[in-house]
């Protein structure tokens, strides 16, 4: 309302009367292309020169180019094709050029009366552009396992882009329950239960029919508190301790013996949230003690323990020997390795085989020497 008053007041001061004898033409042009405004004068104005005014009411171009800014001269060209036809050619169109343009002719001898012959409504078509993909959750984008989150794809363009969500090998239809866990609606994607098995990559595609369409991918990694299990096995004269850790992120992971960190371990990455820490122990050396597997992230520090100790069965102690090593007849006892995980004894199948063979060898040796 204020702008209309200012324009009217300016027109009164200039003593210029604007009449309307026009009709409206809609033009749509892609950014970077050329827009052509063609103004055909009525027969009664065929000997009059036409002027073009831009969205701000500024006279864009005259025959001598006196009233056009120097930076626009390369983009605006005025053509007089026929006696009654005037054309304004605007090259390299940008979104700032959108708006209403008018073709005006001086309809009085003193040039104080302008008649609008034609109006042009220029719409600049802009390809889609994704601004961002934001996460709506209860933890300010700190994703926790088993929580509900919403992905929101923000895009702009003219016309307003439509949003399509895709996962590898799968497209989600809007406002349809695509599966029991993921629903797409408007420009959002609802994930009802974000877990470690939920897909990681979510692709937003923005398309408004003006090429090229824009795509952006959001990766989701739910945080997981450390979980761990320890497995033990015996191969020949070696004991293998395998600590499997599930955590995301994993800030640190280590093996300790009697509270001292062990550096000679092998780390194996299973997937983006699972790690195995493998510890190889030589049973012919002093390996007895409390072994501790420790994992830490921003949620907590988790620990699991396994105790390796020696139990004397026949009141005498020997070392654990390779299963084919000859045992002295005076050594009628053998060593047993007890593996305790969380105060529970774990004996593997291989351990029982070695124990069985040792007992047979001891009994055979005693019987052989008794006969002699």
Automatic annotation (TrEMBL):
The keyword Transmembrane applies. Residues 15-115, 128-225, 226-313 form the Ig-like domain. InterPro entries: CD47_Vset, Ig-like_dom, Ig-like_dom_sf, Ig-like_fold, Ig_sub, Ig_sub2, Neural/epithelial_adhesion. GO terms for cellular component: neuron projection. The keyword Kinase does not apply. Coiled coil: none annotated. Residues 1-20 form the signal peptide. Pfam families: Ig_3, V-set_CD47. This is Ig-like domain-containing protein. It comes from Rotaria sordida.
């Amino acid at each position: 309302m204020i702008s209309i008053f200012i324009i009217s007041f300016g027109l009164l001061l200039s003593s210029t009367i604007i009449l309307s004898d026009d009709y409206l033409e809609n033009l749509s042009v892609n950014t970077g292309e050329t827009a052509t405004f063609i103004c055909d004068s009525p027969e009664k104005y065929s000997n009059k020169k036409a002027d073009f005014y831009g969205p701000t009411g500024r006279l864009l171009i005259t025959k001598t180019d006196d009233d056009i800014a120097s930076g626009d001269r390369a983009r605006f060209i005025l053509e007089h094709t026929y006696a009654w036809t005037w054309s304004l050619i605007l090259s390299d169109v940008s979104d700032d050029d959108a708006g209403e343009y008018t073709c005006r002719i001086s309809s009085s001898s003193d040039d104080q009366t302008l008649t609008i012959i034609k109006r042009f409504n220029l719409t600049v078509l802009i390809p889609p552009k994704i601004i961002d993909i934001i996460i709506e959750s209860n933890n300010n984008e700190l994703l926790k396992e088993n929580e509900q989150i919403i992905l929101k794809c923000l895009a702009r363009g003219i016309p307003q882009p439509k949003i399509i969500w895709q996962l590898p090998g799968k497209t989600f239809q809007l406002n349809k329950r695509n599966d029991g866990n993921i629903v797409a609606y408007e420009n959002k994607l609802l994930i009802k239960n974000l877990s470690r098995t939920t897909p990681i990559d979510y692709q937003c595609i923005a398309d408004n029919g003006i090429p090229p369409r824009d795509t952006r991918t959001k990766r989701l990694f739910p945080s997981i508190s450390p979980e761990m299990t320890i497995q033990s096995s015996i191969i020949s004269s070696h004991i293998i301790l395998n600590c499997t850790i599930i955590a995301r992120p994993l800030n640190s992971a280590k093996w300790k013996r009697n509270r001292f960190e062990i550096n000679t371990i092998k780390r194996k990455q299973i997937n983006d949230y699972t790690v195995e820490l493998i510890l190889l122990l030589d049973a012919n050396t002093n390996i007895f003690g409390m072994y501790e597997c420790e994992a830490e992230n921003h949620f907590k520090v988790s620990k699991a323990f396994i105790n390796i100790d020696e139990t004397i069965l026949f009141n005498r102690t020997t070392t654990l020997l390779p299963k084919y090593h000859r045992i002295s007849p005076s050594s009628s006892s053998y060593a047993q390795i007890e593996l305790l995980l969380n105060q529970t004894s774990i004996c593997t199948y291989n351990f029982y085989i070695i124990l069985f063979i040792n007992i047979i060898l001891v009994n055979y040796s005693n019987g052989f020497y008794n006969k002699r």
